[in-house]
Amino acid sequence: MGKVSILYVEDEPFLGRIVKESLESRDYTVHMVNDGQDALPVFLQHRPQICVLDIMLPHKDGYTIAGEIRRVDPEVPIIFVTAKTQTEDVVKGFETGGNDYLRKPFSMEELIVRVNNLLKLSRKTGPSGSEEIAIGHYTFHPQRYELKRGDSVKKLSHREAMLLTVLAENKNVIVQRKDILLRVWGDDSFFNSRNLDVYVTKLRDYLKEDQQVEIVTIKGVGYRFVTPG
Fold first, then answer.
1. Where in the sequence is the domain holding 23, given as residue range(s)?
2. For an engineered disulfide with 214, which of 91, 106, 119, 226 has Cβ 3.0 to 4.6 Å away?
């Protein structure tokens, strides 16, 4: 398997050089762009496996770039990098096609963990692993982010699909909270731990029509995804 190819869009020369060299030293191939208007042509030329986009850029911001990339490739993982701290900016990032975000300043270790987590998920839900997963009376399509029951189709968010994928891979066994947080969010901070509780509640609501399917909380440990078969 060849090197992982990354589109990296960053207009701060010093930061861009450090990140590019650090990623290349870890055997990634990095296509770096410092102007928003050049991002899509470089993406189309190289078709990278993951994109890391700054939000504040000359001529075209990261949100716009993500929208353009999504129209070409609905599946490629996108990480936003931002100095912004407002919740609405983060929400806008996800709404425009982002899969994850990093706030500046960030460590290379954190960036690499998030890159690898998204690549791992995309491989599991890509063409080679796009088969449906049976969950009781439901059918889960990881690649399409869809949960079906009969003629009813529920579209999942990226993180809902990630969380359900982790649970479905570990049916009827206990999964540690920390393992879920590292896989889905990239870190096990208190903030993300609270988010996990919210997402588990959402999945329970989506799966409530089949009483044989249950996400059981193991206090102080994690969750057990109970499904028939």
1. 5-124
2. 226
User: Do 38 and 136 share a domain, yes or no?
Assistant: no
Averaged pLDDT, 107-112: 90
How confident is the model at residue 1, as a pLDDT?
47
- pLDDT for 161: 87
Are 142 and 159 in contact by the 8 Å Cβ rule? The answer is no
pLDDT band at 61 (very low <50, low <70, confident <90, very high): very high
Q: How many domains, the chain?
A: 2
Encode burial over 72-102: b for 16+ CB neighbours within 10 A, e otherwise.
Answer: eeeebbbbbbbebeeeebbebbbebbbbbbb
The residue out of 92, 124, 156 marking a domain boundary is: 124
> Which residue reads 């109970």 in tokens?
226
Mean pLDDT of 80-99: 76
pLDDT band at 117 (very low <50, low <70, confident <90, very high): confident
Give pTM, 2 decimals: 0.58
Q: Under a CB-based contact definition with an 8 Å cutoff, are residues 93 and 80 in contact? A: yes
What is the DSSP code string of 170-200? TBTSEEEHHHHHHHHTSS--HHHHHHHHHHH
Q: Is the peptide bond before 105 cis (omega within 30 degrees of 0)?
A: yes
Burial class (CB in 10 A: 0-12, 13-18, 19+), 147: buried
